[in-house]
Design a protein that fits this description.
The protein has 144 residues and is mostly helical. It has one domain: Orthogonal Bundle (Globin-like). It has helices spanning 5-11, 13-26, 28-31, 37-41, 44-52, 63-78, 83-103, 113-143.
Amino acid sequence: MTERLNQVIAKNREEIVEAWYKRVEADAEIKKIPLSREERIDHLPLVLDELVRPMDSGKQVPSQSRSAADEHGKARRQQRYTISMLLEETRILHRVVADCMQQNLLLIDISNLIPDLIEVHDRMQQMLQYSLEAFLQNGAQRAA
């Protein structure tokens, strides 16, 4: 019995969070920002919720997910992250999800793998876009 990619991500949620956290904590640049574990990962479960939303539910990001991405961008700005750090966090998440997919490849419905990968990538990029917009808007308001 095979599963869609979003189902595999949902089943491996805790492992994805842990792998992402370890890799982010190992990044020399990001590590310069001293945050607790909770502060570092607080947004990630909401991002994963967006990624595991049924694949046929359309391209529109739900308002709750958009709000979470906005809050993430604002929080990272207050924590003194840089845009480069935000991009690196997302790159690491892409890698961790890809590693999860590779480890579970025999469970994944191959006939839907490419469309599911495209959808997961698009959703992750939308969330990053919303976070960056909030990050930049928050900085513009401070400068004014």
